[in-house]
Design brief:
four-stranded antiparallel beta sheet, 14 strands, 3 domains, SH3 type barrels, single chain, Ribosomal protein L2, domain 3, 15% helix
C-alpha cells in the first residue's frame, strides 16, 4: 500500500476526505480495509478501486470524525513536492547564482581625491545598466558609471570647482539645478545614490550646512554639503527604447544580473509546487504565513506584530 501524491489526490484529501493509495492487484476491498484500519486506526466509510494498466488504485473515503488531512500530514503528503523557488534561490546552486566575474568592478570613487584624473577605458559590464569608465589618477585607478558624452583620454577634475561633465565635486560647490549622479550618502563613502543608466538627480536648494537633492522619483533628500557627486547624466539612457523581442534575450539579460525570469505566479503552479498552488484560493483576503512556518511554507505577506486601530 503506497500513498499517491498528485494534484488530484491532494484535492480529494481536502474536498472529499479521501486518501488515494496504490495497492496490489490481487487485494480485495475487504483486505485493503482491514490493512488500512490496522495501520492508521481510522474508520472507513467507502472504498472504490480502479485498475489502470498494470496498477491498481484504492480511493479510501474516511468517516467525518477521522480527517484525512491528519493522516496525510503524518505520511508527509502535504509537504511532498519540489522545493519552492524561495528555497532554491537561498541554497545558491548554479541555476540561481550570479557569475562572480560580472560583479568584479567596485563602482565608487576613493575617499581621498585631488588633482586631475584621466579616462583610460570605457567598457560594457553585463552586471550594470550603464557603461563603466576606468579613471586613472595619481594614487591608482577606480571605476565609475560613464557620463553621457564621456570619451577615452578625457581629463576630469577631482575635488575642484569647475562645473563640467565627469568632474567629481563637493555638493557645496555645485550650483542649483545642476544634474549630478553617483552621490555620496556620507562624506567619503564613494557614492551611493543614482548609478543606473540614463539617470540623474539635481541640486534643488542649499542651506548653511545642508544641500537638498531631488531624485528621479521626485523625492528629496538633505545631505551634508561636504558629500561629493559627479557632474552630468549617466550614459545608457536608450537601453529601454529598443524592444527586446525574443524571450531568450530577456532571460540572459536577467540571468547576468542574478534576476529570475520568467516569473511564474504562485496560484498558477501545481498544488505540490507551492503553498498557493492549484488556484483554489485566488480570492482570499490575505496570505499571511505563520511565524514558526518552515522555509517551504513561509510565503505571502509578512506577519504583523499586531493589527487594528491602536487604542
Amino acid at each position: 500500500m503506497r500513498p499517491v501524491v498528485t494534484e488530484k489526490a491532494v484535492m480529494k484529501i481536502e474536498a472529499q476526505n479521501t486518501l488515494t493509495f496504490e495497492v496490489s492487484k490481487i487485494k480485495s476491498k475487504e483486505n485493503i480495509k482491514k490493512e488500512f484500519e490496522e495501520i492508521f486506526k481510522a474508520k472507513i466509510q467507502k472504498i472504490r478501486t480502479l485498475v489502470k494498466g498494470n496498477k491498481k488504485y484504492a480511493y479510501i473515503q474516511l468517516k467525518k470524525e477521522f480527517p484525512a488531512i491528519d493522516i496525510a500530514t503524518k505520511l508527509g503528503l502535504m509537504w511532498m513536492g519540489k522545493r519552492i523557488i524561495t528555497q532554491r534561490r537561498g541554497r545558491g546552486t548554479h541555476t540561481y547564482k550570479v557569475r562572480r566575474k560580472a560583479f568584479r568592478f567596485k563602482i565608487q570613487y576613493p575617499s581621498k581625491l585631488e588633482g586631475e584624473g584621466e579616462i583610460i577605458k570605457l567598457f560594457n559590464s553585463s552586471a550594470h545598466t550603464a557603461p563603466l569608465a576606468k579613471i586613472k589618477y595619481s594614487r591608482g585607478s577606480f571605476y565609475i558609471p560613464a557620463a553621457k558624452g564621456m570619451f577615452e583620454g578625457q581629463k576630469i577634475k577631482l575635488n575642484g570647482k569647475e562645473i563640467k561633465s565627469g568632474n567629481i565635486i563637493s555638493l557645496k560647490n555645485i550650483p542649483v539645478k545642476t544634474n549630478i549622479y553617483c552621490i555620496e550618502s556620507r562624506p567619503g563613502d564613494g557614492g551611493k545614490f543614482i548609478k543606473s543608466g540614463g539617470n540623474s538627480a539635481f541640486v534643488d536648494r542649499k542651506s548653511e550646512d545642508l544641500v537638498q537633492i531631488t531624485f528621479p522619483s521626485k523625492k528629496s533628500k538633505k545631505l551634508n554639503n561636504n558629500c561629493r557627486a559627479i557632474i552630468g547624466v549617466i550614459a545608457g539612457s536608450g537601453r529601454l527604447d529598443k524592444p527586446i523581442i525574443k524571450a531568450g534575450k530577456k532571460y540572459h539579460i536577467k540571468k547576468s544580473k542574478s534576476k529570475l525570469w520568467p516569473r511564474t505566479s504562485a496560484v498558477k503552479m501545481n498544488v505540490i509546487d507551492h503553498p498557493f498552488g492549484s488556484g483554489r484560493a485566488k480570492n482570499v483576503k490575505s496570505k499571511i504565513a505563520k511565524r514558526n512556518a518552515p522555509p517551504g511554507r513561509k510565503v505571502g505577506l509578512l506577519r504583523p506584530k499586531r493589527t487594528g486601530k491602536k487604542k
